[in-house]
Amino acid sequence: MSTAANPGRLANRPLALMLAIVAGVILLVLVITGWYWSSEPDLLDMDALVAEHAGGSTVTGVQTTAALIGVAETLLDKRGGYLSNDRFPPGVWLDNIPNWEYGVLIQVRDLSKAMRDRFSRSQSQSQEDDDLSLAEPRFNVDNDSWMLPATESEYRQAIVFLKSYLARLTDKDQKSAQFYARADNLRFWLSTVDTRLGSLSQRLAASVGQRRLNMDATTAAGDQQDSSDSGDEMVKTPWTELDDVYYEARGTTWALIIFLRALEQDFDSVLEKKNAKVSLQQIIRELEATQAPLFSPVILNGTGFGLVANHSLTMASYISRANAAIIDLRELLAQG
Predict the structure, then answer these.
(1) In this prediction, what percent of the chain has a pLDDT beyond 90?
(2) Whether 140 contacts 109, CB under 8 Å
(3) Same domain, 81 and 153
(4) Is the pLDDT of residue 230 over 60?
(5) Shared-domain flag, residues 118 and 164
(6) What CA–CA distance (Å, rounded) separates 214 from 217?
(7) Which of 61, 190, 229, 287 is the most exposed place for a label (fewest CB within 10 A)?
(8) What are the tens digits of pLDDT across the range 147-205?
(9) 287, 321 contact by CB (below 8 A)
(10) CB 225, CB 217: distance < 8 Å
(11) Are residue 66 and residue 145 in the same domain, yes or no?
């Protein structure tokens, strides 16, 4: 059939072309927006945080609280906002930054718990701070909850309670808010960090596959266990999850650097007394190396001694050294 006999086909061609152009433009805009949103925020400046949230106050605990507030706000207000619970493009297509957000969030949860349970209480049976007891559970809302409740609204409420605690902490006329910068309190939080980093380094090292002894088969002396459960096992991160673990580690170390810088100031006298200040500074330096710019468009996964780099093993090296230094620091703090 000739085109002259079917004029409808000619009429539809400009419309189809227009729709294709519009779809292409929308897709291009979404791709560019997704690329822009995938940029990690810079490390926060502690002096600016304290000036913004506490008016430059030098009261003990201000640095740590301001750091927690600043990290939580950055989690919500960085480029693209909070992406872990997005249900629409381009956020729903992205996975690197949501995994980065998860690493940051775990550290926010751990520090808020330490502040509620230890830093703000003189002893185990002391009454907990009202604002911190309301902030901590809100940070534990599911990180991908879209509504009822929305993750962002719960985290913002937690920030409001943290700011209320900080306001009372810096108010000389009130004594209701306290921050106890003791060695045992710092060791409590560091023990959690130690566990987190140890797990991360193992997951990162599994990028190339490792044969590991089955530690679950270890039992108390005298216990009997089926020999079929013992021995070693192959542990290897699926290639589709390599970038997930890598960016979770980047987020974890980003938050830890800021928190450790703050704790260095609040626990200055304790660290000086224990001769542990240099140890803490070395931990920060090791973690800072994890924030070096990534120039590769993908997370490379070469063998340990191969021609191609392995970004996961490089990250694991820095984290393992920082973790070893944390163990040494905890031992220093435990000494009389």
Answers:
(1) 67
(2) yes
(3) yes
(4) no
(5) yes
(6) 6
(7) 229
(8) 889 999 999 999 999 999 999 999 988 778 999 999 999 999 999 999 999 999 999 99
(9) no
(10) yes
(11) yes
Task: Find, among 167, 192, 189, the residue nearest to 177 by Cα.
Answer: 167
Strand partners, 212: 233
Q: Are residues 48 and 169 in the same domain?
A: yes
Mean pLDDT over residues 139-149, rounded?
91
Give percent of the chain above pLDDT 70.
89
Lookup: tokens for 270: 């304790």
Q: What pLDDT does residue 214 have?
A: 65
pLDDT given for residue 126 in this prediction: 80
Q: Which residues of 286-298 are buried (b: 16+ CB within 10 A; e: fewer)?
A: bbbebeeebeeee
Q: Work out the average pLDDT over 24-38.
A: 92
Same domain, 331 and 202: yes
Q: How many residues does the chain have?
A: 336
Residue written as tokens 């070395």? 282
Any residues with CB less than 8 A from the CB of 298 and at least 6 apart, and which?
243
Reduce the DSSP state of residue 210 to 3 states and report it: strand
Report the 10 Å Cβ neighbour count for 118. Answer: 18
Domain containing residue 297: 181-212+232-336
Rounded Cα–Cα distance for residues 41 and 127 (Å)? 37
189 and 313 fall within a common domain: yes
Secondary structure, 3-state, 234-248: EECCCHHHHHHHHHH
Residue 304, domain member (yes or no): yes
Cis bond before residue 41 (omega within 30° of 0): no
In a domain, 282, yes or no: yes
DSSP string, 226-279: -GGG-SEEEE---GGGHHHHHHHHHHHHHHHHHHHHHHHHHTHHHHHHTT-HHH
